[in-house]
């Protein structure tokens, strides 16, 4: 059977803040049958994950493009691979059968052809949860928060934790894992609505709007008069500089992402290394793709609080392939509250 497949491409490389006009919707005739003798299968995309790291793939060049397999350069005019959840509609692969739900690298379109089953692709048992959860809280966003907090930061009960982009996909879960574990948690976000949400709905001890602060070092001193044990960094730049100055001896920084630097290649954190040396601070970068070994532990730690409502899920869902450019551009303006997803089709 032949259908029409709508998909999104970039018109050219994007080296600053992305605009909707940088993207184009394309349409192609698409066969829903697999070719005989090929090991491939076809997935109808249901929910696509909208992730900041994609911007580093869209640049003319970025060190990110040489670091990880799934962060390769996106070529203008060509389909864009992206994390998501979908249903197999045709298969020539004996391991993946028609009607099974899968999660992993799909593409920013209505259908994906999976030619190679890489390490990120797996079958999904929905376990009674909404399918969207498997592209967010039970997918790579959740695993990033869990692994970054427990494996990289190695928390102890009672420690003082600071999280940036705290109302986003990863940040909102890091803060909640930290609270459930018994830490004191302060988050920052870019609007008063997000700040209220962190304190009133997600149980953060404190939160502040970083856009209203003129001296971030003094702000963090106000919230952490005795210093920060753990900083979970999603943004980099000035916030990282301010956190380093306020860390306690033997503090840990998880370098999860530097979104403030993705849109401006001249913007860098300039760290006062005297703090790092004299306070024996550890700064550790990590990638979720290197954390698949803790996936089972992550699920065990997440399912029970999800079922009992102790872990709140923030989802921000747009609908239709056409909404992908605005959903993506919105990440860099702070439009999203929680995990940004695009629902491409009903199941
Ligand atoms: N290491 C890994 O494996 C891994 C995996 C997933 C994500 N990440 C990284 O984790 C970070 C968060 O990703 P996410 O998927 O959870 O996105 P997200 O937090 O849901 O969305 C991005 C948020 O970043 C904030 N932001 C945008 N531009 C900013 C700027 N110039 N300065 C400060 N904040 C800004 C906005 O919130 P405000 O309104 O608060 O400004 C926006 O809502 C990103 O840096 C991402 O690259 C890393």
From TrEMBL:
Keyword Oxidoreductase (UniProt): yes
Ranges of residues in domain Enoyl reductase (ER): 16-342
SMART domains, per database record: PKS_ER
Keyword Transmembrane helix: no
GO MF annotation list: oxidoreductase activity
One matching Pfam family: ADH_zinc_N
Keywords for this protein: Oxidoreductase
UniProt cross-references to InterPro entries, sorted A to Z: ADH-like_C, ADH_N_2, ER, GroES-like_sf, MDR_fam, NAD(P)-bd_dom_sf
Coiled coil residues, start to end: none
Protein name per the record: Enoyl reductase (ER) domain-containing protein
Lineage: Eukaryota, Viridiplantae, Streptophyta, Embryophyta, Tracheophyta
